[in-house]
Write a structure and sequence with these properties.
The protein has three domains: about 90 residues, Fumarase/aspartase (N-terminal domain) (Fumarase C, Chain B, domain 1); about 250 residues, Fumarase C, Chain A, domain 2 (Up-down Bundle), CATH 1.20.200; about 70 residues, Ribonucleotide Reductase Protein R1, domain 1, CATH 1.10.40. The strands form three sheets. The protein has a two-stranded antiparallel sheet. The protein has a two-stranded parallel sheet with strand order 3-4. The radius of gyration is 30 Å and the shape is elongated. It is mostly helical. The chain starts with 13 loop residues before the first helix and ends in a 9-residue tail after the last helix. The protein binds arginine (ARG). Arginine binds next to helix 6.
Length: about 475
Amino acid sequence: MTLWGGAFSQPTDDAVRRLNDSLRFDWRLYDVDITGSIAWVAELVEAGVITPDERDRITAGLEQVRAEFARGEFQPAPGDEDVHTAVERRLGEIVGEVAGKLHTGRSRNDQVATDVLLWLLGAQAQIAGAVAALMRGLLAQAEAAPNAIMPGHTHFQPAQPLAAAHWWLGHFWALARDVERLKSMADTWCDRCPLGSGALAGTPYAIDRQRLAERLGFRRAAPNSLDAVADRDHVAEMLFALALIGTHLSRLSEDLIIYANPAFGFVRLDERYSTGSSLMPQKRNPDPLELARGKAGRLIGHLAGFLATLKSLPSGYNKDLQEDKEPLFDACDTLLDVLPPLAGLVETLAIDEARMRGALVEGMLATDLADYLVGRGVPFRQAHHLAGQVVRRAETQGVPLSALTLADYRAISDVFEDDVRAVFDFDAAVARRAAHGGTGDTVWQIAAAHDWLDQISAPATPHRPE
Ligand code: ARG
């Protein structure tokens, strides 16, 4: 028997049931579903709908169902459409008829909206933790080789020398935004509780929704029941946040795949974090990085797909909304699969400082050559042009910039003096870019990254149930 079959004279077609049923994936909501139900019966007592004794029996029964799920002992029964009906069916078997009072004044619409929101808040914290673990690895690499210098690229062409720490920290700060994005979601629109909205129009019982919201760790109650049951903005926002994390991991992976290629040889992956080829014995393949890069596509797909699900829904709950769970769960699972191996890979890889330095070419100092002229009063546009002529002359002669004679330089501009040699110092070029945020001040950046990690791992103001 379904929970809603009173007006029906025929059973649901089997194929429809297979399509409709969601227990195979939404069982994961059992914990938050039961937490929500326990808060709900507490408020039903306050509203004078059930007695304290009934509340206690229902609550004890729900805790038993929770324990069965947690131990993996929960047995689905035919007719268990989704996690909500399954929990209620099992509750009835345990506590008898009083179980039928649990759903008073409530609908699965406000129930599932609340469950998904609570689950999502838990997942945010978990993913933020996994991202932070990877960030610790990036920071450790930045600190491990304070003097390493490598070519920086724009358009993937050699551009200017960078402290290797600056490159590691570039990825660190992108992920810092991701973690802050997840955390800030919890403190904005995700702090409104949908429970007590009923199916669409609200609940007719004297439920104190503010107190109910606070019981569940929310700051306030959602202000409009019709909106509250159909609002999945937080799912879309979460999918965006996860897709962007995936995008950042993909870019980090792409860099590392290139740098691990022997033609670059800037990094060498630890054997535990790379794989071999079944054919070519010399290969060391960066599979975890390729998978991180590949899975970004899947995360982006979940976001695009779910927005399409939402876009044409008429007001109120529609069954389309059941499609919120699989992308959300899969996106979270995907990142929780990808992040730990990436963190391990970053932590254990070896950088080759000599190969990094060996890849620097003097052309990367052409900007510094222009700045040399600027320092002697030449307007930058003109200095840029003159430095370009130096590059051209060196190319024509097939020599590095520093191998041109002073006469060559002075043929281009008599502002050049013998001290122009001092320009050809990669370390000095890096150190010179010391204005805030530049590659020349990684000492400050490393300290700031530590501060950031300390703050983010400090316990947040607890307004969520643990
Ligand atoms: N399994 C449903 C979902 O995930 C629960 C809500 C069902 N509501 C309804 N009116 N049929 O969306």
